[in-house]
Fold this protein.
Amino acid sequence: MSALGKVTVVAPDREMSATSHCITLNQPLRYHQLAPNRFAVQGTPADCVILASLKILQTKPAVVISGVNRGANVGDDISYSGTVAAAFEAALQGIPGIAVSVVSRDDPDFASAARVAARLAERVLQYGLPRDVVLNVNFPEEWNGAVRWTRQGRRAAKTVLVENLDPRGREYFWLHEELHKTNVPSTEDPLTDFSALSAGFVSVSPLHLDRTAHHYIERFGRWVDGLQWSE
């Protein structure tokens, strides 16, 4: 990114996976400067964007790059992703946001993912992004050298609770995912993020802050007649 302008890194000081768009409200928010233009925040990815834009930086950044995260953020997992949430927080602050993740393995190719992110950032700086839209970029395990525009798929897994007892005999639970044996739709649609990654493409999905189901507003509007009453 340094070829595009001044780069400042503001990142959580610890693992913050699956924090979604959580922000710190019930305790102090602190950060530490580790080196020139390098800051560690005792908070979530969204906290990092807020602190960077309102306190750490002298001027609002031209673009926020969230990542490169280890582990893909596609399908249903987008809802849990702190990486994607940081890009959304940037959009809330009026800043273009790009979330970047790489499929996890023993030695993820962070360098190639970063180069792709830099090229996309260059385009965003040149052309901008639509209001309230962010880009969710996912880099495959074995890249075929191409990029595919995609839509959010659905993961073929479900969350289950693994129950156990600690050494003192107290019950605890561990969240785990199991593959759906009867529901594997995402890799069959070539336009989903899952399919792009499995075929070796970099997946780039434009995501919108507005979660309104616009297509169904008229349908639900007909319900209103039965919900109105007077005392």
Notes: Helices lie at 45-56, 82-92, 110-127, 193-198, 217-221. The domain at 9-153+189-206 is CATH 3.40.1210.10 (Stationary-phase Survival Protein Sure Homolog; Chain: A,).
